Amino acid sequence: MVFSAMSKWLRQFRFELDMIFRNLWLLALPLAFAVMNVWIIGGLEPQVNLFKEAYGFHAFVQTMTLGLVMFIGILTVRRDIRRSSYEWSSVLPVPYATKVSAKYLAGLIYFSIFTLIAGAVFAWFSSQQGIAPEITRDYTLYFIGTYEVSYIVTLALAMLLAISIPNRVVYLIGFCAWMFGTFFMDIFLIDKARLYPLQTFHLSRFFLMTSQPNDTWSIRIIADELFYSRLFVASFALLLLVAGVTVLNRIRPTKHKLAVWSVSAFAVVLAALAFLPYGQIWQQRYEGYYAKLADSTLTSMDERPEWNSSSDLFKITDYDLQVEMENRDRLRIAAKLTIPGEGLEDNEELKLTLNRSFNVQQIKIGASTASFSRQGDQLNIKLPPLTEGLMQVEVSYEGTMMDFAPGFQGQGSFYAFAKGDSVFLPGYIGWYPLAGHQPIYVKEMDGSGIQLGSVFVSHAPYSAHFKLSLAGFERPLYTSLTEVGREQGNQVFEGQVSEGLTLFGGEFLELKSADFPGKAVTTPYNAKLGEDILKQWEQIYDYFSGWIHPFKPHLEQVLFLPNENYVQYSVENQTYVMNYVFDTDYASKILMNEMLLGSRRGDYLIDNMSEDVRLQIRGLMWYLYTREAEGYSDEEIWEGSGNSYLIQELYASNTETDPDRVGVRMVKQVAQALDEGKYKQVKEVLNYFYAKGIEVPHPKMEPAVADNKIPYSEWEQEWKRVMGDENGN
C-alpha cells in the first residue's frame, strides 16, 4: 500500500515537472535571470562594496520574482484541481495531499534554480575579488537562504489562495497579496507603525534591511532572530499547505477525516511552537525598551542640562579597564578609576553613569568595599571620609549588550551590541563609568519614545588617560587608542582620551604600508577602496613629511565602516571613523588634514582673526600643496579649483571676525613668493609655525594647546625675517 501511494506520488510529481520544464517561456526566465545577475554584479567596479550592491540588487529583483511565484502557484492549482472542466479528475484514486505536495515540490524545484543562480553568481565574483572563502561562503548562504525561504512561503500562500478562491479573481487577489506582503507591509506596518515582530511575515527579507546592508554587523547581530524567523516561516508554509489540503478534502468527502484534522491540528501546534523562540527575542527587546520609557530619571529632549554648571560633575584622571568576553556574548568588566579628591570633600555620594544593561557586582574605594544604589543608568556610591590626594574607585560589573531601539534610523536597530565577533560599544552608551549623572538616553517630548542622549545633550567634555585590556575575543578589536600589545587573543590599548572611547569588533582587515605611520581598518568587501585611500593618503604624507620637521602625526588610523545606522561621527581621539566615501581623493586629503593639523574644534572661539591666525596657517599648508604638488596656479585657486574646502579660511570675508582680511593678505604674500620661486622660504615659515603648534582643540580637552594663539603680528615678523627685507619680499 505504501509502495502504491509512493508510485502515485512519483507519477504525479513527474507530470508536474513536465508541465513546468516543457514550457519554453518558463525555461527562458532563469536564463534571463542569470544574464541579469552576471551583467549587474559582474559590472561592478572593484572599489565598490560587492555585498552592499548585490544586496540592493537582490532586494528589488527577488521581490519581482515573487510576483512570478505567486502567478505560477495560482496557475498550477487552477490548471486542474480548481478548474470546473476537470472536476471529473476528483474521482481518480489520487489523494489531494498527493496532488498538492507534488505541485508544490515541482514549483519549488523550479524556483530553486533562481536561488542557485543568485548564490553562484555572487560566490563567483566574491571569490574573484579575493574575499576569504569562509566569508564568501557565509554571505552566499545568506543570499541562498533568504531567496529560498521567500519562495517557500510565497508559493504555499499562492496555492492556498487558488484552492480557497475558485474564481478568476484570485489572480487579482494574488497580486494584492504580493503587494501587501512586500511593499505595503514594509512601508506601513513595519516602518510607519513600527510593528517590527511582523518582519517574519514579510515575503522578502531583503527589503527589511535595505537601509543597513553591510558586511560588518547587519547579518551577524541578528543571526538568532534570522534562524528562528526562518524556522517559523517554514512551519507556517507547511500550515498553509495543510490548510489547502483540508479545504479540498471538505469539498470532496473523505473517509480519513480524523487523519486530516489531526494533521491540521499538528500543523497549527507546530507553527505556534516555532513562533515561540522568535517571539521571545522580541519580547526581551521590548521589555528593555519599555523599561527605559518607564524610568523617571531619564531627561526629556526639551531639557538640556549645562554640564559646566552641574554640581555632580567631577574629573576622572585615569581609567584602567579590563574587559573579558564570556560565552561569546557576556561581558565581564573591571573598571579602576583614579579621581582627585579635591572638591568632593563635602559630598556624601559619588555619582557615576553606567549603562543599565550591566549588573554591578562590587565597588571598592581603596581597599574597602563601598555600598551603592542604582536606578536606571545612575549609580550612586556612598563615600567614606575623604582626604586630600587621589581616590581609587574600582567598579566590577557584567552583562550582555544588545541595546534595541525601535525606529532607530528607520528600520529598528541597536544603539550598541556585543555578540560574538560583532562588537560596537560607543563611549556615549556608558559601557564604562562616566563622571556624574549623564543622559545616555532621553525621552521624546511627548514621552512616546526614546532617543540617544548624545544626539541632543553633549556629554561632559574632559580628557583622561585610558588603559584598556581585552581578553576572550576571538578576533582583534579596534579602538581609537594606540594598541601597545597583542598576544594570543589578548590586547592592550593605552593613551589619552578626550572624545570618549568606542570598541569596534567584526570581520575587519588591517591595511598597512611599511614606511607609513597610518593604517586603514576596513571590511572585507571594502578592501580595494581602503587600499586606494591608503595609497593616496601615503602619497600626500610623503609630500608633507619631506619638508616638515619634526612631523607630528595627530591621526593613527582610519576605521572605514560604511554603516550610517551606527557610526555618525568622524574623529575620535587618534582614529578617523568613516561611514561614507564618495571620492577617494577627498577622503585621503581629509585624513591627511587630520593627521597633519589635528583638531580644530575650538575654532568657534576665535572672534578676531588678527589675534589668532592658526586657521589661516593651516589653510596655507594646503595652499602650498595645491600649488606645488598639484600644479594649480593662484588664479585657478581663486576661481575655486583645487582643494577649496581645505583653504576656505584664506578667502573668508567675515567682517565681524576678520575685518582686516588677514587671510587674503597672507595668501597674497605666499602667492607672490611662490611665483618668485621662493618655495624653500615659504616652507621654512610654515614649518616654524607648525613646530610651534597650529592645532585648535576644544579648550576643555586641551586648554594649554587651545590658548597657544598666534597673532598676525607674529606671522608678519617671522615672514619678514625669513624673506630678508622689511616688506617681506
TrEMBL record:
Regions that span the bilayer:
20-42, 54-77, 104-127, 139-162, 169-190, 227-248, 260-279
Keyword terms of this UniProt record: Membrane, Transmembrane, Transmembrane helix
Entry superkingdom: Bacteria
- What's the protein here called? ABC-type transport system involved in multi-copper enzyme maturation permease subunit
Q: What is the lineage of its organism?
A: Bacteria, Bacillati, Bacillota, Bacilli, Bacillales
